[in-house]
Amino acid sequence: MTISATTSDTDSPAALPAKSKPVFGILGAISSAHMINDMMQSLILAMYPILKGEFSLSFSQVGLITLTYQLTASLLQPLVGVFTDRRPQPYSLPFGMTSTLIGLILLAFAPSFGFVLLAAAFVGIGSSIFHPESSRIARLASGGQHGFAQSVFQVGGNMGTAIGPLLAAVVIVPFGQHSVAWFGLAAILGIGLLLQVSRWYAAHHIASVGSRKPVNVAPYSRKVVTGAIAILLILIFSKYFYVAGISSFYTFYLMERFGLTVQNAQLHLFFFLFASAIGTVLGGPVGDRIGRKPVIWVSILGVAPFALMLPYANLFWTTALTIVIGLVLSSAFSAILVYAQELMPGKVGMVSGLFFGFAFGMGGLGAAVLGIFADRTSIAFVYQTIAYLPLLGVVAALLPREIRRT
């Protein structure tokens, strides 16, 4: 049995010629907006030491903040993706950024832990709207270089995530919780960028409506596609559960084990996140050239030796190992996402929402579970335990041979 799909206007050859050049202006704008969006999100992570002290939080409560943000985003993203596959909403992007702005203002003036959770939920709602449609636009503007376009889009987010701890160290640590409100100016800039992107998207959608036509694509049987999607979700679980342990608790780990200050620990977190951004840039284009499956295989399983060494390393090698881990592990997501989109052509929004949502959900669940684990044992023991997760990368061998598309 094969899958016959009717492609949407944003994924059909009629919508944008497969061999045309990428629309670099749109890719740059959507990547910049992604940087602003994820920078504001990362401020929550970077503020954990401050919030922990301000509201006397346990590690379990710290993990609950991440869970609230990630769970809100993960539950809504697939629904947003399915809806926009059927009815594209070009101007939903500025609306999503506005939700993130509201969350940021709430975070700046939160008087209690409950308001911190509410702020995290608003940021999660913003992400649930932003990511599926932005991923669709990146594919639409790719000129057929889908891995490259997803990497350009993703690197903006990773750079924003990397910048967050630095900004927290420079601005929020010395000036306090209320100083987060100043970053609302970046959100307003992001809304302006997304208005421009939305106009381009709306114009392109209107121009291509008349040229849509059914395209029957049968890359694999439904059974094979279902199995491949399940394998990819296992890999997402492995990656993001592990990353949750680094991003949510790395500063605490460094402060507890090596006696670093908050600002020095955030600088080391920046090194990891910046390396992740570089890895994202490499993953997509390499996947375009040699195929997605080899990139997926190497990026997940290849991290395992370094992850297993990390809990026993001194400060220098801890920094070096986390840089390697960030560089290699981050190359996976663009390849996984494009591979999944090619398994289910015509359902870009649904696939993007599913994988972004699942990634966010696993990150949130990981932070919550590992926070409870840290309270009952220690941060060091958590790092020893999660080191085995990248070994799940071995299941990538079960992925079907991909059908290359141009």
From TrEMBL:
Which Pfam families does the UniProt entry name for this protein? MFS_1 (PF07690)
Positions of the Major facilitator superfamily (MFS) profile domain: 26-405
- Record field: transmembrane: 62-80, 100-130, 151-175, 181-203, 224-253, 265-283, 295-313, 319-339, 351-374, 380-399
Listed InterPro entries: MFS, MFS_dom, MFS_trans_sf
- Range of residues in the leader sequence: none
- Top-level taxon of the source organism: Bacteria
Which keywords does UniProt give here? Membrane, Transmembrane, Transmembrane helix
**PANTHER family referenced in this protein's UniProt entry, alphabetically:** FOSMIDOMYCIN RESISTANCE PROTEIN
- What this protein is called in its record is MFS transporter
